[in-house]
Amino acid sequence: MEHVRDLTLLPKAHLHLHFTGSMRPSTLLELADKYGVRLPDALTGGEPPKLRATDERGWFRFQRLYDAARSCLREPDDIRRLVREAAEEDVRDGSGWLEIQVDPTSYAPLLGGMIPAVEIILDAVDAASRETGLGMRVVIAANRMKHPLDARTLARLAVRYADRGIVGFGLSNDERRGMARDFDRAFAIAREGGLLAAPHGGELSGPSSVRDCLDDLRAARIGHGVRAAEDPRLLQRLADRQITCEVCPASNVALGVYERHEDVPLRTLFEAGVPMALGADDPLLFGSRLAAQYEIARRHHAFTDAELAELARQSVRGSAAPEDVQAKLLAGIDHWLTS
């Protein structure tokens, strides 16, 4: 039996964390109290809610819980606190780089409009990064339930702020709705402006949704992508082009995509040579953060420390971190493995 190293000390990059979903449960309760928001019981029990999103009603319920949590973020101070705490949690889990994903549209009405919302978020990220030492950037995500023209507006805005810490453009919400190609113009704008294309695909929908992300949106990374495991040719394509899949094992099981942790095809992707970046997705709702995803790979998929180190390397290489930051993290990973 090899010596089991501490996974919170393994340097890694976190590429799949949603803004509201990163909130600490205790913070949510405090903010709800501050604003007199009556939260659904599922969010106040001290346990992660029981979720299933494989049917429409389950997804709707998941969205409703998410929206209830988001309604507790009302002032710039709340945004600053959320971002600082997300950074602190990541640092505690060994993360050296975090790309946090946000749709500013949701916050705009309370923060004085779209541009003030983006400014407040970017300032908060900047401050949290300075305070915690964590490298931190932003992925702006369009909502596929909304009109593709909204996504274009958002892409233009994201490009305008590329020099202020926006590194990617995403597409989130229920991937069974709206065709990826409806958003091709928005993604073209984002790519031409130097942003990484990182849409969601291949979690609630099958392998075809991953192919659509590659063909229609020219994705450089895929949010989730686990269902690619059902299509060997697609796996080969992801491996050949080294497209990183942001895999969120706890989330896959919580949402009922797979019954048990053992069923998440981590090994299938890993052995096919598809790069992965393990992510926590929405810790508020799924109950586990970054290091816990590596713990799942170790416990349920028998990943050795050498393989876990390789997963960490893949997360760093798939990130938008500058070369010097990547080099430092990669050296730290080697050190973790030899210590």
Rg computed from alpha carbons, rounded to a whole number of angstroms: 19 Å
Give the overall average pLDDT: 94
Helix content: 40-55%
> Major beta sheet, specifics?
5 strands, parallel
Note the overall shape: globular
Low-pLDDT parts are none
Distance from first to last alpha carbon: 16 Å
Number of helical stretches of at least 4 residues: 15
**N to C succession of SSEs:** EHHHEHHEHEHEEHEHEHHHHHH
The number of distinct β-strands equals 8
Strand order of the largest sheet: 1-2-3-4-5
Class based on secondary structure composition and strand pairing? alpha/beta
**What amount of the residues lies in strands?**
5-15%
A few lines on this structure:
The protein is of the alpha/beta class. Helices cover 49% and strands 12% of the residues. The radius of gyration is 19 Å and the shape is globular.
Structure characterization notes:
With 339 residues, this protein is of the alpha/beta class. 49% of the residues lie in helices and 12% in strands. It is built from 15 helices and 8 strands. It has a 5-stranded parallel sheet. It has a 3-stranded parallel sheet with strand order 6-7-8. Helix 9 (232-240) links the parallel strand 7 and strand 8 (244-246). Helix 6 packs parallel to helix 7 and helix 14 (305-317) packs antiparallel against helix 15. The longest helix has 19 residues, at 114-132. The chain is globular, with a radius of gyration of 19 Å. The model has no long low-confidence stretch (mean pLDDT 94).
